[in-house]
Write a structure and sequence with these properties.
By secondary structure, this protein is α/β, with parallel strands linked by helices. Helices cover about 45% and strands about 15% of the residues. It contains 15 helices and twelve strands. It is globular. The structure holds glyoxylic acid and magnesium ion. Glyoxylic acid (GLV) binds next to helix 9.
Length: about 350
């Protein structure tokens, strides 16, 4: 194990010091842009005003013959756009791919001072994070990058799920983790053909005893993994996110999947289609009714001590802390979004 005193030392002479706390930022949706398509790149300045994070995707969904163009397109859009308070991320190719070394090297050299987070796909264990951590430190030193570029892992292999706690704790550069349900389904040999969401045959059938009709209830295929990921991230002080939802024709199912993740502790999800931006905004901004109740709890016990009744429900230290989570998030949303600020009225 690395000695605690070394944990926050830069991994290369001249690299910026690792952060001790994550920047406080709203990351309700990570909006994916295919940067090789000029028409979509042209929309990025406007997009940056609508979303919390713009991500230039270089990995899956980018055709092999467009890998170079996507990388150059990302560099061009990063250089040309003022992102303001909106995050700028890229999803690089996997560490075993022929493109990744140039992805990292060229992007850090060209726009390293604008890049907030690198999303690393197909992370199997902490060794993948250690490799990228070291390489980024060397490149940051070479290119005089002033703030550390953070790493966001995609949890999308069976091995990664087995090692999720070690991945979360692998480096102070860790920003968080997203569930990658499509690759994870393939890695686990799940019998599905979907990008996230449920399956009508994954269900529980009511008992046969005395039942004329036997209702069945669809279950959440991702419950176990999201729970495991949320615990690993919360324990490490990093952020868990739900990943992609591929059926753009079913916004209700996307909303339900996002909401399950939000209720369990995730801070956001990916938007792969413009229609998913508003779904993520709605789901990952706390409900004004819940926020109003949270405010009642905090107002009733300002220092969080003791026990009080609010609307017939017992409140104590633990519900006060839950209320604080909602209120802190609502304040963050309100600071960015005047319409939500009016609804929260905090
Ligand atoms: C995302 O990358 C996924 O595989 O679901
Ligand atoms: Mg994937």
């Amino acid at each position: 194990m690395k000695p605690p005193r070394q944990f926050y030392q830069p991994l290369a002479i001249g690299a910026p010091e690792p952060l001790r706390a994550l920047p406080v930022r709203l990351e309700r949706m990570i909006h994916f842009v295919p940067p090789h398509i000029e028409k979509l790149r042209a929309k990025v300045p406007e997009l940056a005003r609508q979303v919390d994070v713009v991500l230039g995707n270089l990995e899956d969904a980018i055709p092999i013959e467009a890998k170079e163009a996507a990388r150059q397109g990302f560099i061009a859009m990063a250089a040309a756009t003022d992102f303001g308070a909106t995050g700028l991320w890229t999803r690089i190719n996997a560490l075993n791919s022929p493109w990744v070394l140039d992805d990292i090297g060229e992007i850090v050299a060209a726009v390293g001072n604008k890049l907030d987070v690198i999303m690393l796909p197909k992370v199997d264990g902490p060794w993948d994070i250690h490799y990228l951590d070291q390489l980024l430190a060397q490149l940051e030193a070479r290119h005089r990058i002033t703030k550390p570029i953070l790493i966001h892992a995609i949890l999308e292999t069976a091995q990664g799920v087995n090692n999720v706690e070690a991945i979360a704790l692998a480096s102070p550069r860790m920003h968080g983790m997203s569930l990658g349900p499509a690759d994870l389904a393939a890695s686990r040999a799940m019998k599905t053909t979907r990008v996230g969401g449920g399956h009508p045959e994954y269900k529980v059938l009511a008992d046969a005893q005395n039942a004329e009709a036997r209702p069945s209830f669809q279950q959440d295929l991702w419950h176990y993994t999201i729970a495991k990921m949320v615990d690993a991230c919360a324990a490490a002080g990093i952020k868990p996110l739900y990943g992609p939802f591929g059926d753009f024709s079913d916004p209700a199912a996307c909303e339900a999947q996002f909401r399950n993740a939000f209720l369990m502790g995730c801070v956001g999800g990916w938007s792969l289609h413009p229609s998913q931006i508003d779904i993520a905004k709605k789901v990952f901004s706390p409900d004004p009714v819940e926020v109003a109740f949270a405010k009642k709890i905090v107002d009733a016990m300002p220092d969080g001590a003791g026990a009080v009744m609010v609307d017939g429900k017992m409140q104590d230290d633990a519900t006060w802390k839950q209320a604080k989570v909602l209120l802190d998030l609502a304040r963050l949303v309100a600071a960015k979004d005047p319409a939500m600020a009016a609804r929260y009225a905090l």
